[in-house]
Amino acid sequence: MGRDTYDWDESDVRIRPNKKGTRPRTKDRPAYEDAVIGRIVTVDRGRYTAILDEDSPDERVVVAARARELRRSPVVPGDFVALVGDTSGSPDGLARLVRIQDRRTLLRRSADDTDPVERVVVANADQLVVVVAAANPEPRIGFIDRALAAAYDAGIEPILCITKADVKDPAALLENYRHLDLEVVVSRSAGDGATGIDARSADGLSARLEAGAVGELHRLLAGRVSVVLGHSGVGKSTLVNALTGAQRATGGVNAVTGRGRHTSSSALALRVADAPPGTWIIDTPGIRSFGLALVDPDNILQSFPDLLPASANCPRGCTHAADAAGCALDAWASRPEAGPAGAARLASLRRLLGAEDKVDSKQLGTV
Ligand SMILES: Nc1nc2c(ncn2[C@@H]2O[C@H](COP(=O)(O)OP(=O)(O)OP(=O)(O)O)[C@@H](O)[C@H]2O)c(=O)[nH]1
Ligand SMILES: [Zn+2]
After folding, report:
1. Distance CA 341, CA 196 (A)
2. Which of these, 14, 78, 220, 353, has the minimum number of CB atoms within 10 Å of its CB?
3. Which residue lies with its CA nearest to atom 5 of ligand 1?
4. For ligand 1, what atom is nearest to the CA of residue 136?
5. Ligand 2 centroid vs 350 CA: distance in angstroms?
6. Pair (56, 189) in one structural domain
7. Is 113 part of any known ligand binding site?
8. In terms of residue numbers, what domain contains 31?
9. CATH number of residue 57's parent domain
10. Which atom of ligand 1 approaches the CA of 230 most closely?
11. Is 288 a member of any domain?
12. Beta-carbon count within 10 A of 248 CB
């Protein structure tokens, strides 16, 4: 997909305009007919790093500053942008970012469930890889379910990746997601002597991951743009490094941008090694919470497809809260088909649906 969008030019028509997308008003902006389109790989202190003529002999990295007419529209990794000025890619050159192309998808979050401020995470992602460890740190069901709801809301396909399966069997955790049509990849470190993939993790230790899961992820990512989300310590950098061959944690010159050290708190698009053109991973360090203040409650329920059919038996306008009279979801949870995780699934849905009403919801972003 990334490939196609990359080739857009000035004459392009809009495909699937995203009503959530942010676009400068058409009326009063100059045409910028000499603009070139690039893919944003990272944003750091008001400087936008874009990659131009991707996968061609003229491929180059261009740093840009935003034009005033963009006002405060957020520009994020994954965005395709129009650049004018010095787009040669010379080390000291600075281009001007004059336009954000229409976005296919937009992953947004709020700091917590009551904060209405939109934080745009990445644009044009096809997939969201939610990384949780089987243990150390303990997996948080609420975090997974929040991420699934945000992905559903954004029209992005989720993938669940469980790491550290060598530390604990993730079967009980996976029981929650058994009824979902969700790709699940289970990763573990490789035992001595097994064929593994060496990856340097953020703390500098080298983890050796079993090749199977990394290979499976590699296959799922091919040709697509995937955001990777996970709490600190789950092994996200280890995985990302295994897939990209990057060693950003060790500093030095960045594999994509070719420039200096990247601050570790901003999202960064990295190329997946040995993958077809357009295969990108967008790493999102430092996202600790995933507030759902911007997500339509209806989409929260839609992201629980195992509970959705039963909700058809609820009274009209049912809030599905624990005290909602006649809510059919209680009956669902007690049925054998709901499985051992049925009650937990319902509780998780209720936490997410009810979060916006709670006074102390500041905490809920990290549930
Ligand atoms: N046992 C085991 N340890 C792992 C596995 N994957 C990663 N680790 C270790 O877990 C620790 C954390 O890994 P990181 O990749 O740095 O975790 P992270 O999620 O990127 O954390 P931050 O860098 O803090 O965001 C490191 O010591 C890794 O070597 C695994 O599959 N099994
Ligand atoms: Zn109900």
Report:
1. 33
2. 14
3. 164
4. 10
5. 10
6. no
7. no
8. 2-100
9. 2.40.50.140
10. 19
11. no
12. 23
Residue-wise pLDDT for 156-189, tens only, equals: 999 999 999 999 999 999 999 998 989 999 999 9
Note whether 120 and 269 are same-domain residues: yes
Of 42, 75, 100, the residue at which a domain comes to its end is 100
Nearest CA to ligand 1 atom 29: 207
- CATH number for 176: 3.40.50.300
- Please state at what angle helix 141-154 crosses helix 342-354, rounded to 10 degrees: 60
Indicate whether 266 and 188 sit together in one domain: yes
Within-domain flag for 289: no
Asked whether residue 179 is assigned to any structural domain, the reply reads: yes
Ligand 1 first shell, C-beta below 6 A: 163-164, 166-167, 187-189, 201-203, 205, 207, 209, 230, 232-238, 285
ipTM over 0.90: yes
Write the DSSP string, 34-73. Answer: T-EEEEEEEEETTEEEEEESTTSTT-EEEEEEE-GGGTT-
77 CA → ligand 1 middle, Å: 24
pTM, entire model: 0.84
Q: Alpha carbon of 71 to those of 25, 66, 87, 251: distances in Å?
A: 11, 9, 21, 32
Closest ligand 1 atom number to CA of residue 187: 31
Q: Which of 75, 100, 125 is the last residue of a domain?
A: 100
Q: pLDDT digit string (tens) for 66-81?
A: 999 888 889 999 999 9
Number of domains observed in the structure of the chain: 3
State the pLDDT confidence band at 193, using cuts at 50, 70 and 90. low
Nearest CA to ligand 1 atom 27: 205
Q: Ligand 2 centroid to 316 CA: how many Å?
A: 9
Asked if 133 contacts 233 with a C-beta cutoff of 8 angstroms, the reply is yes
Q: Is the dihedral of CA 234, 208, 78, 149 positive or negative?
A: negative
Q: Which amino acid is at 128?
A: L
Q: Whose CA is nearest to atom 10 of ligand 1?
A: 235
Which ligand is the nearest neighbour of the Cα of 304?
A: 2
Same domain, 80 and 175: no
Q: Among residues of the chain, what percentage have pLDDT more than 70?
A: 79
Please tell me the predicted confidence (pLDDT) of residue 202: 56
C-alpha 100/C-alpha 77 separation (Å) is: 11
Evaluate whether residue 320 is within a structural domain: yes
Whether residue 213 is found in the same domain as residue 340: no
